[in-house]
Amino acid sequence: MSAAAIIMLIIAILTVWGGLALALVNLQRHPEDDTMMPEEHAPEL
Amino acid sequence: MSSKAVPGGTHESKHKRETWSTRKVFILAAIGSAVGLGNIWRFPYVAYENGGGAFIIPYLVALLFAGIPLLFLDYAVGHKFRGSAPLAYRRLHRRAEGLGWWQVAICFVIAVYYAVIIAWAGMYMIFSFTEAWGDDPEGFFIGQFLQVSENVNIGFDFVPGVLVPLVLVWALVLFVLAAGVQKGIGRANIIFLPLLLVMFLVLVVQALFLPGAADGLDALFTPNWAALADTGVWAAAFGQIFFSLSVAFGIMVTYASYLKRRTDLTGSGYVVAFSNSGFEILAGIGVFAAVGFMAYSAGAPVNEVAGSGGIGLAFIAFPTIISQAPLGALLGVLFFGSLVFAGLTSLISIVEVIISAVQDKLGLRRVPATMAVGLPMALVSILLFPTTTGLNLLDVTDAFVNNFGIMAAAFVAVLLLTYGFRALPMLGGHVNETSSIKLGRGWRIMVGIVAPVVLGYILINELIARIQEGYNEMPAWFVGVFGWGMAGALIVIAFLLSLIPWSSRSAATHPVLDAADTDPKEASR
């Protein structure tokens, strides 16, 4: 493989899978609200 | 959250809407829907033909500036108005109901042929053990397996080798859908998606160890920077992101409508979007490593053997690779198994759009709605496609429903929501109530300006090309009926369906839950 191809392969992997890692971290920092688990209807009703 | 008392509270038990048990299940189902055949056989070739390694730049731009904003738009409509596409759009504005039915009609057409490709892939999984194609994969696929007729028309000469697996695909999909949102769709994705990921990872590792793999990756990732000056390359990137993320044809509206009220929509959406793209990159690596091996075996450069992806890659090029590779049968089972599982989770989501719409409109329960939608659909699919004339029909309907169905509906949807109903501030506000990443003016610009410009550009280019060139040298009457005619009929059918009154038992009489700024009386009228 040429150096340019290897660099672009690494950039592609880092940006996309890095983006996925960041998205997962963000989701973990905002855990699901357990007090609002499956509901029959909207809580205000 | 609204504190407004909603009238008609007694309806709740009657119209209890199904929900995902947790957001994890929703995320898995949404990824299962987005990751489909296109990720495996379309993305690697779009990238290869549009700048190679340089393609990552327009690709990321398209993902961040069009794909993800449109994904959030779908989530917002489905989650706020808590309905299938027609009901959600109707609750947004009475005149928008037809847009929802247009998306439903598009899903109908896609589902009837998509199932056939899954049936082929299932058969090829079995063929991989014996390498049934011998030394002529192309002749085997066209001649022996599909028995493609020389005449381009519609016929009813059934091919049992396709008919039987197709019936099984429909039986499985309808079984899953009849079981419901959580117990059916959720559970299927919890099983199929990890299975797909593991199979595909093993496939990629196996492909990377084949001789010539590095040459394939070199061909895919060597950047051609000049391509970035070509608007066609940018259009290809937006088109790929757009088809791949399953935005704007009702799926994400429907899936988001089953979410609980307090769900981090944007946080979940980023995970879905990047998982989908992550899988595409993985597919690019796996497919081009294998193509590199094919070139090595043929003693030819990669560009001479690469072909053009799609059905040719899966059912002609891959069998060639399987015959030549060490442990070829394993490679075949992994590849075709991946197509089957990726396809099934997508097909489930496509059919769910229709079931959910019919369920809402007629006030049916899950099993009767599944049967009312699924059986006629399966019948159409089984009558038209496992025949000697099915391949041409599939080819033309696929091309036209993608461009003049999905793409056109998306274009109309962003224009209507932005300028017709001026709904973006309200939808963005809804998302912001419960989401970790907020949507502001940037999002409204992406959805209201960038998306329509790009979609309009791609649509007009495609329109000009099809009018000037026709399609794949097929007879004009055939393209006219099953291409143009079909795409036009979808709009007419959508309009007619929107005129049918809603059943008194339907969900339309149910007040919009948690839609603070929508008058429930207006919505249920």
UniProtKB/TrEMBL annotation, chain A:
Keywords: Membrane, Transmembrane, Transmembrane helix. The chain crosses the membrane at residues 6-27. Pfam families: MaAIMP_sms. InterPro entries: MaAIMP_sms. It comes from the Bacteria. NCBIfam families: MetS_like_NSS. This is Methionine/alanine importer small subunit. It comes from Arthrobacter crystallopoietes BAB-32.
Automatic annotation (TrEMBL), chain B:
It is a multi-pass membrane protein. The keyword Transmembrane applies. Keywords: Membrane, Symport, Transmembrane, Transmembrane helix, Transport. It is found in: Membrane. Coiled coil: none annotated. One of its GO terms (cellular component) is membrane. The chain crosses the membrane at residues 25-44, 56-78, 99-127, 158-178, 190-213, 233-258, 270-296, 329-355, 367-387, 399-421, 442-464, 476-500. Its main location: membrane. SUPFAM superfamilies: SNF-like. Pfam families: SNF (PF00209). GO terms for molecular function: symporter activity. It comes from the Bacteria. Belongs to the sodium:neurotransmitter symporter (SNF) (TC 2.A.22) family. PANTHER family: TRANSPORTER. This is Transporter.
